[in-house]
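Lab manual, section 2.4: Encoding a predicted structure.

Procedure: take the sequence of the chain (196 residues), apply the prediction step described in section 2.3, and record the output as structure tokens. A sample record is shown.
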Amino acid sequence: MTGSPLSDAGIFLVNTVFGLYILLVALRFLLQCVRADFYNPISQFLITFTNPPLRILRRFIPGFAGIDWPSLLLMLALQSLELVITGLLGPGQIPALPGLLVLSIAALLKLFIYIFFFAIFIRIIISWVNPGAYNPMTVILHRLTDPLLLPARRLIPPISGLDLSPMVVIIALQLMIILFIKPLTYLGYSLSGYLF
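Recorded output:
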């Protein structure tokens, strides 16, 4: 059952604003993990929009073991805040802290999977429409998806020139959502103290 139009509009705006900013931070984090070109225009765009809060966090939380912990903490904090606000606007109840943390982690993991899913899909489309294209977008797409596609390509080499690695990775990503993310989300709901 939905709430009033006003609360539905508020939830939509909160989900949109938080979702877009979390996506920017997630893309920055992933591009750092795959060591994408810092001077790529897309990298520079992400850095410009995500630097203000990260600059503050980095004063207190350093990166460690090659992982940008401030970015992870910012994503977790924003995702948790989004769930709190939408909980207040919707059911009028804040999830219990354990459930809130599990739901936030599940949402972020799902976002990472969808980023890879759509990056692979866009890469496939570009390879059909304009194979061999070289621009900042294709460079980023290759850098982001190669860590998944190259092992799959070694496992299943191209057959008669047909590369099946994208399909294998997409199936594996979907299985991760079904077998890991969905149970984790249900656990978060049960720990939150209420079910949506």
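Check your result against the sample. The two ends are 10 Å apart (CA to CA).
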